[in-house]
Specification:
The protein has 176 residues and is α/β, with parallel strands linked by helices. Helix content is 34%, strand content 20%. It has a 7-stranded parallel β-sheet, with helices on both faces. Helix 2 runs parallel beside helix 3 and helix 2 packs parallel to helix 6.
Length: 176
C-alpha cells in the first residue's frame, strides 16, 4: 500500500467545482459561535459537493481568518449566503419544496439510521448553537427532526462532527 500524492487525487479546480452537479443537500447553520466549526462545515460541504450553506443569526461569515484555518479554501468553492433570520430561510425553502429537517434530540425524532430519503428530493439540514441547539421555534416549522443515536454519558457531539455524520449518511442513501 502506498499513500497517494496530492497530484493523484484528481481534485477539482474551483471552476470545476462550481460547474459540477451538486448533492441535493443544503446546510443551515443557526447561531454557530465557533469559527472553527463554521470552517469545518465548509470543508465537509466541499468534500460532498453540497449545494449551499445558509449562515444565520450570529454565525460569522467569510472572509474570516479563523474560518479559513479549517475551511482551507472551501469558502471559495461552496455557495453560501447570510440571512439573519433562520425562520425565514426555513419557510422560504419549504415554499420551494425543500424538505427541512433539524438535527436535534426531540420527542418523536427519527434516528439517523431509520431516516429514509425520497429520490429526486432536495433536503436542508438545520444545525443549531453549540450550547442551546436548534431553537424550538425552528424545530416547530421544520418537516421533522433527525437524531444521531448516542450511547455515552455526554449525549452531544460537536456541530462539525454531527454535520459530517449526517451528511455522510444521507450522501450514501442518495447514491443507493
Amino acid at each position: 500500500m502506498r499513500k497517494l500524492d496530492n497530484k493523484e487525487l484528481d481534485r477539482k479546480s474551483i471552476e470545476d467545482f462550481k460547474e459540477a452537479k451538486k448533492t441535493p443537500l443544503l446546510i443551515i447553520l443557526d447561531d454557530i459561535r465557533s469559527l472553527h466549526n463554521i470552517g469545518s462545515v465548509f470543508r465537509t460541504s466541499d468534500a460532498f459537493l453540497i449545494e449551499k450553506i445558509y449562515l444565520c443569526g450570529i454565525t460569522a461569515i467569510p472572509p474570516n481568518k479563523e474560518i479559513h484555518k479549517t475551511a482551507l479554501g472551501a469558502t471559495d468553492t461552496v455557495n453560501w449566503e447570510y440571512q439573519k433570520d433562520v425562520l425565514s430561510v426555513i419557510e422560504n425553502l419549504k415554499k420551494d419544496d425543500v424538505a427541512v429537517f433539524a438535527i436535534e434530540q426531540v420527542e418523536n425524532s427519527i434516528f439517523l439510521q431509520d431516516f429514509k430519503i425520497e429520490k429526486n428530493k432536495k433536503y436542508a439540514l438545520v444545525f443549531g448553537n453549540e450550547v442551546y441547539g436548534v431553537s424550538q421555534k425552528a424545530i416547530e416549522i421544520c418537516d421533522g427532526t433527525i437524531e444521531i443515536p448516542q450511547l455515552g454519558t455526554k449525549h452531544s457531539l460537536n456541530i462539525s462532527v454531527s454535520m459530517g455524520i449526517v451528511v455522510w449518511d444521507l450522501f450514501k442513501k442518495m447514491l443507493s
